[in-house]
TrEMBL record:
Residues 1-31 are annotated as: Disordered. GO terms for molecular function: ATP binding; kinase activity; thiamine binding; thiamine diphosphokinase activity. This is Thiamine diphosphokinase. GO terms for biological process: thiamine diphosphate biosynthetic process; thiamine metabolic process. PANTHER family: THIAMINE PYROPHOSPHOKINASE (PTHR41299). It comes from the Bacteria. Residues 96-160 form the Thiamin pyrophosphokinase thiamin-binding domain. Pfam families: TPK_B1_binding (PF04265), TPK_catalytic (PF04263). Its EC number is 2.7.6.2. It comes from Listeria fleischmannii FSL S10-1203. The keyword Hydrolase does not apply. InterPro entries: Thi_PPkinase, Thiamin_PyroPKinase_B1-bd, TPK, TPK_B1-bd_sf, TPK_catalytic, TPK_catalytic_sf. Keywords: ATP-binding, Kinase, Nucleotide-binding, Transferase.
Amino acid sequence: LGDFDSLTESELQSVKEKSSRRTRFSGGKDQTDTEIGLEAALALQPDLIRIFGATGGRMDHLLANLMMLTKPQFLDATTCVEMIDRFNYMKMYTPGDYTLLKQEDKKYVAFTTMANVEGLMLQGFKYPLENASFPFGRALSSNEFVEEKARFSFQTGLILMTQSKDE
C-alpha cells in the first residue's frame, strides 16, 4: 500500500504482477506511506512489526520514519515495532525496565533521546550509567555490550535504541 510515487513504470508493473492485494493512495495525502502501513499493520494486532527499508535513501524519509514513532497514536505500538536495515536494528522505548539481547552481527549500541529523559540506567554496557538525565536530541552512541545481555531503564521520556555495525 502507498502512493507508489517513487517506483518506475517497470517496478510498478512488477508490483502489480507479484502482489495479490494493493491499495494505492493519492500522492497528496497527509500521511507517509510508512504511517499508512503501520496503521494497517496495527489494526491486525500483531505481536511484532518489522519495518525494512525505512532508513535508506532520502534523509527526509529517514527522519519522518523515526519521528513517526513519537506521535501519540503510535506510542503504544513502540513495544512491537522494529526498524531494520543492513547495518542497523532500531527500536523505540517508553519508560520502563528492559533487558536487551545483543544482535549477533552488531558491534555498537546507541541510545538517542527522542524526548527529555530522566533516570536513565545502563548496565552491562562498556559505558554504564546510573540515574542520568538528558535533554531531547542527545545521542549516547558507540557504546558496546559487555556480554550478550544488558539492561537499561528510565523513568520519563522516550528513547530510540540502535544496534549497529560498520560496513
